[in-house]
Amino acid sequence: MFLRSKWLLISGILITISSVAPAEEGMWTFDNPPTQLLQKQYNFTPTKQWLDHVRLSSVRLNDGGSGSFVSPNGLLLTNHHVARGQLQKASTPEHDYIRDGFYAESPSQEMKSTDLEVNVLQTMENVTDRVQAAIKNISDQKQAYEARQRVFAQIESESLKKTGLRSDVISLYQGGEYWLYTYKKYTDVRLVFAPEQQMAFYGGDPDNFTYPRYDLDMAVFRVYDNGKPLNTTDYLKWSTNGAADGELIFISGHPGSTARQDTMSQLVTERDYREPQYLQFFKVRIAALQAYAAQGSEQSRQVQSIIFGLQNSQKAYQGRFEALHDKDLVAKKQKEEDDFHRLVKANPAAEAEAGGAWAAIDGAEVKYRPMIKQQTFRRTDSTLSSLAITIVQYVTEIKKPDGDRIAGYHDAELESLRFRMLSPAPIYTAVEEARMAASLTEAQAQLGPQDEFVTTVLAGRTPQQAAHELIGGTKLTDPKQREALIKGGEEAVASSTDPMIVLARKLDPISRSMTNWYQENVQSVEIPAGEKLGKARFLVYGKSAYPDATFTLRLSYGTVKGYPMNGTKAPYKTTFYGLYDRANSFDFAGPFALTKRYIDGQSQLNLATPLDFVSTGDIIGGNSGSPVINKDAELVGLVFDGNIESLAGDFVYSGERNRAVAVHSAAMIEALRKVYGASKLADELQGK
Amino acid sequence: MFLRSKWLLISGILITISSVAPAEEGMWTFDNPPTQLLQKQYNFTPTKQWLDHVRLSSVRLNDGGSGSFVSPNGLLLTNHHVARGQLQKASTPEHDYIRDGFYAESPSQEMKSTDLEVNVLQTMENVTDRVQAAIKNISDQKQAYEARQRVFAQIESESLKKTGLRSDVISLYQGGEYWLYTYKKYTDVRLVFAPEQQMAFYGGDPDNFTYPRYDLDMAVFRVYDNGKPLNTTDYLKWSTNGAADGELIFISGHPGSTARQDTMSQLVTERDYREPQYLQFFKVRIAALQAYAAQGSEQSRQVQSIIFGLQNSQKAYQGRFEALHDKDLVAKKQKEEDDFHRLVKANPAAEAEAGGAWAAIDGAEVKYRPMIKQQTFRRTDSTLSSLAITIVQYVTEIKKPDGDRIAGYHDAELESLRFRMLSPAPIYTAVEEARMAASLTEAQAQLGPQDEFVTTVLAGRTPQQAAHELIGGTKLTDPKQREALIKGGEEAVASSTDPMIVLARKLDPISRSMTNWYQENVQSVEIPAGEKLGKARFLVYGKSAYPDATFTLRLSYGTVKGYPMNGTKAPYKTTFYGLYDRANSFDFAGPFALTKRYIDGQSQLNLATPLDFVSTGDIIGGNSGSPVINKDAELVGLVFDGNIESLAGDFVYSGERNRAVAVHSAAMIEALRKVYGASKLADELQGK
Question: How far is A498 from A474, CA to CA, in rounded Å?
């Protein structure tokens, strides 16, 4: 599946632009759509009206995915696996919505999400000149870094005051451009429909990131505004026939992060330092959670979502790891860098700008590599511990002028931050304890017993003792306790005896020191070097390309199309026949079982109905839940994954084999009507 | 699919034994079954009675495949693609049995095969001592080669006279052992049932050699003896349930050729010389036949079988080619050779025997490599031309003492040879002309216009002219003409003005000279070197292994089991649901179409019935049509292919991913009863 992994965001500090993109490659910003390519390849040029309509119909979910409005009354379509976190938070031992699914036939039955925030991109403004002016005459890199952060905060804060909208300054083309994006924000988001996890995530971890697939990975929310269903004209009409073979399609969503313009030295860091450690990290944590789940069905229910998320990341990182060990891929990346380097040398203006940038980045990377172990393993892996640190930092930061605060605590971010800090989502202390113990055990093994973080957390205890005392002693499970600390400010936090807050006070300086080191030695060097490379790219290639992904709205395009696979061809679509084949082929075992609804409902289904399909659209984690639309901007599918070949997509795109995997629009209607008895919802989606 | 390619036989001159085989690897002779491995892994030891029964129930088809008796009244089960040659020969523009299938409800409707010979292995006798005695004191390699051929012919001829059975001396363990095999021979073989080619070969060339598959690749003949259905107790009973997940199974069949014990220098010859030229050969011929087929449906009907055969070989060779370019595989083979070499050096007896064998083979290979181009491209690619050469050589050879004849013309081979020479199978002259013209064009391009073969065939004409005049002028399409020449002997052949015979007289010395060169420079060196390596292997490893495949009867064993594929799992079986999924997924296009019977008959079928399944049994081309049996020797499936990973099987076996693909016994019964209205046949198969 293609949920945006939070881990992806930690990497990709430096973002550069590619040279000219090959056909169907690219995650284009809405201010610079690939109109010439589209006109040439498909004889189609989207109008401004088309682009505005699609943009305003597209949403970002703060759980890490994408979605779209699909009715005039605020229906929001996304993936089940994007909604899963909310389903988990709403579930209890008595009502397991992940296992059983959910359907609200009437508005009164719709179920309010615990802490889901939805963003819709309203405006995009190029603020590159203002950012560059702010750092123009500062020669010291650390000071320049701070000045850049200050001007970001200033622009965001001004915009927030002026518009009342969520306002983010984002870096595109590796700092070649800076943009101010404003978003309408919705936090009253109610669940209307979700299938059973078994059918949404059919095939489980084995089938994840593969195709052919048979998943109904959908969920439907309704967005409310002032207590009423959102009334909007910007929604995607449901296509009558859905995606057809060879058809031009668009994907409008929020790809999380790519590293296609990373320098070779940055890729080496990924390959030889970060990836192996992350894979180890996933392994340990998954094993701990599986051991916890093995205790019983209720325990299993509590951690299912976390395990799926970790397994998803593990499989994605395994794919990245293999891609980076693929000699052809590495040779291709090296050639790209060599070509760019040569063009820069041949262009005096570009050479003056960026000639020294590669060496600067190489130097920073060499310094950085030994520190990655700390970044990876200095973790408590506990929601309570994260909340504690956030509270400790929050009460200090908000007292500073906005521009002086550390990342995450600027004015423009505070509302969303408080929404998360005060989330009433249930926290299972036994889960917390198991995760924390495993995490501390691994930290001790990887970093040694003398590591400052390790000695601070353990304080002479075993990892199990420490986890037991910390989790057992804290009151932060109660949102009211957190609210009291936030309201009480620095004084309340300083005098708190809650063991998790006590620990967070000790960890805060360690965390700040790591952040400072990273800013001074890596970011202060690589951000300006990246800006220089970005400008040099514009000089030698022009602005004919798309920027690396940044979890901001992008438009991809492509063709509905099968591909060569396993010595034969993968078809452009699958059908419900294939779902029943796979279930029977595995004798209904494990991830290949069918729910009772599908066993009983088979005779109702038209099994020839398309279920999933693939297209050449260029996507990455974060695109989960993106609508697939035709050139009339009608919804023909719902992106939920990429195929196994697309796992190299962080670094390269291949139109030959990379595929976006989507639920077919016809499958959603067929299942709603025939299996779930949700004809009312189907009618609303189809505008009947 | 796993039809034995004739091309495979050209290679594999040298056969050695492996060291100890890993679990489930091996194509074992019936005199040396892997009883210890079976007992240890499966707690099962086949009795002598079990082995005899299975052996006598297994058949070899001279069209290049395997089969088994499946009723007391001579029913013979094999693959559609093994029977396809006979279906093609029986078809006319009015009755296209390949397209439409065939079913004889009553014995009178059963259709006699044109030229199908079936062999059943009766006895196996170790004649190593006698062969070794015959060459013991001969130091000249050429003389030793000839003496070896003479003693082979002598043993075969004696056995034929004594038993009346087809008698073949075969080389196992690379000449470490020689065996006399005798076969009962049947030539009255009548077709009872064949499905439509579209369903037998569902998925066509794309799906060939892949899995998951949805093929009903079956055909049923009835063997007649003295004009009556063969009455036998040695047939395989039909299993009630068929293959189940994790079950122990056996495959009894005739693997054609493997090169697992080839030396590294022989593998280099394969990789760098033979494979690239063969791939070129297949490309050219397939293109010529496709151009011919494009002329119309009748033309397409005529060449369909040849195209399928060539595409099958092309895909198999492409897999071999890729395997030989796989660095891990090559490293593994190198290590095997290094280990063996080291053990030989450490063992004085083995070192005395075989110390010089590698160098001898290396020397022969280096000499051989430049000649492969001639062997590959000096071809007329015409049935009529092959018949002409065979007739010209036949009339000369049979006048010599048996021991002095060239290969293929010994007494023991003559009956089968005449059966083929006089086959009434239709020969389409337009097809012949197209194939010959393409072949000669390529010969000219590859070998140059001055090549002796090229100048002899073309004689100043263009390839098109030569093909047109030769094919247009010959009368050999008529079996009576061939019979007259054979009866007329050397005189009739010498005075014939048939242009194909005239040409064959000129090509005969060229062919003999190539054969002589090959015998003197390659076989005379590599056969004794192989014998030495074979003996050395027995000395250092003991006789704990199986010999390379030689298109003689072998027993493989393994487990019904899925495998890791495409980032996920391939299931152990597929179902009819999957057939309908694949058809719908491709919108019924090309090789993924369904016949009317299956569209109309869907509602009759239980779609959950297993269709195909995989097991870890070790097979290779030639195993097509082999029965898959359980430990009670009941038929649970019908081998028809290997998966794409198994294409490296010529060189190595991997239990992790190599899989034999078979039709499930339940699918055959379900289709016969529900789709083909062939319940009478199903009843006979099930012993009802």
Answer: 5
Q: In chain B, which residues touch A (CB < 8 A)?
A: 203, 206-210, 212, 245, 315, 319, 562, 565-569, 571-575, 577-578, 580-582, 584-587, 592, 607-608, 643-644
Q: How many CB pairs under 8 A join A and B?
A: 90
Nearest C-alpha of chain B: how many angstroms from A200?
17
pLDDT digits (tens, 9 = 90+) for B39-71: 999 999 999 999 999 999 999 998 889 999 999
Q: Do B629 and B247 form a contact (C-beta atoms < 8 A)?
A: no
Alpha carbon A292 to its chain's center: 26
Which residue's structure tokens are 């609804």? A597
Say if residues B617 and B251 touch (Cβ distance below 8 Å).
yes
**Contact call for residues B55 and B32 (beta carbons, < 8 A):** no
Q: Identify all chain A residues contacting B210, using CB atoms and an 8 Å cutoff.
A: 566-568
**Cα distance between residue B105 and residue B127, in whole Å:** 46
A360: pLDDT strictly greater than 90? yes
| Residue in the block written with tokens 């693997």 | B255
Interface test with A, best of B210, B572, B577, B586 (most A CBs within 10 A): B577
Question: Closest approach of chain B CAs to the CA of A212, in angstroms?
Answer: 10
Token pair in block for residue B504: 């064959």
Cis peptide leading into residue A571 (ω within 30°)? no
The span from the CA of A123 to the CA of A120, in Å, is 10
Contacts of B573 in chain A (CB under 8 A): 585
pLDDT > 50? residue A299: yes
**Tokens 């990273």 label which residue?**
A518
CB contact under 8 A, A577 and B574: no
A391, A493 Cβ separation under 8 angstroms: yes
- Interface contact B566-A644, CB threshold 8 A: yes
Which 8-state DSSP code applies to residue A560? B
Query: What per-residue confidence (pLDDT) applies to B138?
Result: 93
Whether residues A577 and B572 touch (CB distance < 8 A) is answered with no
- pLDDT, tens digit, 9 for 90 and up, residues A529-550: 999 999 999 999 887 789 999 9
pLDDT for res B2: 53
Please say whether the beta carbons of B457 and B356 come within 8 A: no
Distance of residue A582 Cα from the nearest chain B Cα, in angstroms: 8
With beta carbons less than 8 A apart as the criterion, state whether B432 and B384 touch.
Answer: yes
Dihedral of CA A516/A518/A519/A524: which sign?
A: positive
Chain A CB contacts of B584 below 8 Å: 575, 577, 608
Q: Is the pLDDT of residue B502 over 90?
A: yes
Residue with tokens 């690239």, as numbered in its chain = B276
Establish whether the linkage from the previous residue to A610 is cis, with ω within 30° of 0. Answer: no
**Would you call B585 and A573 a contact, using CB atoms and an 8 Å cutoff?**
yes
Candidates A210, A562, A581; nearest CB to B566: A210
Global ipTM? 0.90
How far apart, in Å, are the Cα atoms of A559 and each of A22, A23, A616? 14, 11, 5
Q: For B574, how many CA atoms within 13 A lie in the half-sphere containing its CB? A: 23
Rounded CA separation A312/A203 (Å):
13
Q: How far is A20 from chain B (nearest CA, A)?
A: 31
Give the end-to-end CA distance of chain A in Å, rounded to a whole number: 31
Interval B116-164: pLDDT, tens:
999 999 999 999 999 999 999 999 988 999 999 999 999 999 999 999 9
Identify the band that residue B23 occupies on the pLDDT scale cut at 50, 70 and 90: low
Phi and psi for B623 in degrees, rounded to 5? -75, -10
Q: Which of A2-6, A337-341, A503-507 has the lowest mean pLDDT?
A: A2-6
Contact assessment for residue A33 and residue A51, using Cβ atoms and an 8 Å cutoff: yes
Instruction: State whether A644 and B567 contact (CB < 8 Å).
Output: yes
